[in-house]
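tool=predict chain=A
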Amino acid sequence: MPLRSVPPPSSPMDSKLNLHLGIGSDAKITRHPEFYFADGSVVLIVEKVAFRVHQSVLSRHSEVFKGMWDMPQPPEAEVYDGCPAVVLLDSVRDFEDVMTVLYDSFYFDKLKPDSGLSNLITFISGILRISTKYSMVQLRNKCINIIQEKFPSTLAGCDAVLSKHTQYIPSEIVRIIPLARETNVPKVLPWAFYLCCHIEVDELMVNTALSWSDKALCLAGKEHLWKVQKTVSHSFMFEFKQAPGCANSCIRAVPQIGWQDCETLRRSPHPLEEYPDWNSLRVCVKCREHIKAQHREGREKVWQMLPGFFGLGTWEDICNDQNC
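tool=predict ok
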């Protein structure tokens, strides 16, 4: 959308400027109250808001902006208030967040370690979108690291999250999936989908944040999780097998899971949960160590299979997609 060169306002205090955005369409441009610097060297216009900022700052953080001005500008290049001007098709709120980060090195400190998931997503989503689009690698990686504290991509990270008893609210969980897809951060998707499998089906179906294809992945994934909980990670709860060499009748000492507990697990499977009370099984030491080893190996197998349950390939595929 072409810009025409516009002279500066008659008064430097006048924050309202007129700019023609395309032929025959008038739009009133407003100077951003914070990011319109008198010594700024370029003007970026986002949703009719002008940001006059420093080319050197943009170029230091963004390969895209660096390349934009590395080449000599043609004589007909757009000019606004005496500076090169570019119209960007982004959200002004997102762009404000990125400008705040670029000009305030302590901005991320405002996000407290105990911040809720909703605040975390709101805080980083705009920065992640803009940093991804304009190749701001350091900012993008910072955002990804923050997200992965809540949405791990390793079993060790999963165990750390579970040990903290992190609270996940359904309306907050579902926000991360479209954001991760939009910004190419697939490493957070397996755990996000895993959590979504604990949302009641009726609630999941009416949710507007998830696409229908992602809802279908949640439903199919729930069945996969239930199957591996029964047969891989927690198989001893459903069909106990004594350790080789056990001289006791341990198989008779293990209580069988009741149908009500079984139904609860089916509706909300949790195959990555560590079994909490081994002593309650009332089996010999040899059998206990045997099933603990099976449980540990089973959880590792489930973690490796997790992306495939939601159509995401393997962890290696995900890492390649995200350019790890």
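Residues 144 and 185 are 7 Å apart (CA to CA). The two ends are 35 Å apart (CA to CA).
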